[in-house]
Amino acid sequence: MRAGILTGGGDCPGLNAVIRAAARRLHAAGWEVHGVREGWRGLVDGVLEPLGPREITGLLPRGGTILGTSRTNPYKLDGGVDAVLRTTSDHHLDALVAIGGEDTLGVAARLHADHGFPVVGVPKTIDNDLSGTDYTFGFDTAVAVATEAIDRLHTTAESHNRVMVVEVMGRHTGWIAVMSGIAGGADVILIPEHPISVEDACEEIRRRHAKGKDFSIVVVSEGYELGTDDEEREVDDFGHVRLSERGVGSELAREIEERTGYETRVTVLGHVQRGGSPTARDRVLATRYGLKAAELVLDGNWGRMAALQGDAIVDVSLHDATAELKTVPPEWYDVAKAFFG
Ligand code: F6P
Questions:
Q1: Residue in 18, 19, 16, 17 with CA at minimum distance from that of residue 33
Q2: Cα–Cα distance between 154 and 158 in angstroms, integer?
Q3: Which among 120, 192, 208, 262 would be 20 to 30 A from 137, CA to CA?
Q4: Edge-to-edge strands of the sheet including 304-309?
């Protein structure tokens, strides 16, 4: 029996740990494992490579993905889906482990629904915006990176009496902003789900300065809508614009300085949040997900995704997990707001 493994969408720390765990478990059950190069593109173009015990050693601490990744959507390519089915049969794949976020797993769910494709999923994304699971792997590492950055910005903000705006990733949800903001002690946090106005943010900063604190840390999620961006932007295969190009952080910093008169600087954390070695927590979560994905394969439990609920690893339907984004609930934003101003 032979399983393929692919990693799709934006990379994140822990992908290699999932590959290692799933392959180890499948090898132990006597399966061959092949790596699919660069997400769905590898199945469209037929580019696979063997993943034997040698190829999967030393992967646990390694960031990125040894398989490469892409945002290729076979449903957007002429003959793309047929090519995926052809490659699967030509390479004698009996199963596929798809490791990805809503886009990659959305394709997996659709292939399963349309063609009974033998696929299982693993929830990956630094954004933590996948439904059906409490946490995706990669998120903890991104939050750790952002928190460290906020800590560092505190000391320079304090020295110069400045407002520091930190723009973090997260696409259309504010998970990274809220968690790193709470952990780093941000004075204001702006996220797409519970948007406070720029004027309200400025008021919090003024209130803080009135209390004798001459510096402030403002965390803004890249997906926060300032209402000033009306440019038409290119979209990828899944219809997403590159949010970082909107420059929300810079625009917000400009507005804050203009409205409050306080000197303001911006730091855009960007892809450092996705790079490097996974935290211990992400390594453990990725390992548990990899083992669960292998179990789903061995049981022929197609169309399911490994998920974390509470402290238990369970499986949920790929369709349900990708049906809607998991947004930051008000209770979480309330925790952040308790420390504003
Ligand atoms: O989904 C992960 C993510 O890092 C988002 O937070 C961000 O908006 C996007 O990917 C950036 O994509 P790219 O790597 O294509 O610039």
A1: 19
A2: 6
A3: 192
A4: 48-50, 32-36, 2-7, 95-100, 119-123, 304-309, 312-317
What proportion of the chain, given as a percentage, has pLDDT over 90? 94
127 is catalytic: yes
Q: Kindly provide the b/e burial profile for residues 217-237, where b requires at least 16 CB atoms within 10 angstroms of the residue's own CB.
A: bbbbbbbbebeeeeeeeeeeb
pTM tops 0.70: yes
> One of 78, 90, 103, 127 is an active-site residue; which one?
127
Q: Is 223 in the pocket of ligand 1 (CB under 6 A)?
A: no
CA 147 to chain centroid: 16
> Tokens at residue 166, please?
């930190």
pLDDT digit string, tens, across residues 34-92: 999 999 999 999 999 999 999 999 999 999 999 999 999 999 999 999 999 999 999 99
Rg of the chain over Cα atoms, rounded to whole angstroms, equals 21
Amino acid at site 169: M
The alpha carbon of 10 and the centre of ligand 1 are apart by a number of angstroms equal to 6
Task: Tell me if 126 CB under 6 Å of ligand 1.
Answer: yes
- Give the CA dihedral 271, 319, 193, 311, nearest 10 degrees: -80
Decide whether any atom of ligand 1 lies within 6 Å of the 243 Cβ.
Answer: yes
- For residue 10 and ligand 1, the question of a CB distance below 6 A is answered with yes
**What are the tokens at 196?**
């406070």
**12 CA → ligand 1 middle, Å:** 10
Lowest-confidence pick of 26-35, 147-156, 223-232, 292-301: 223-232
Q: Which of 69, 72, 274, 328 to mutate to test the pocket of ligand 1 (most atoms within 8 A of CB)?
A: 274
Q: What is the pLDDT of residues 320-330, one digit of tens each?
A: 999 999 999 99
User: What is the C-alpha separation between 10 and 279, in angstroms, rounded?
Assistant: 18
Question: Do 40 and 6 meet the contact criterion of CB atoms below 8 Å apart?
Answer: yes
169 lines ligand 1 (CB under 6 A): yes
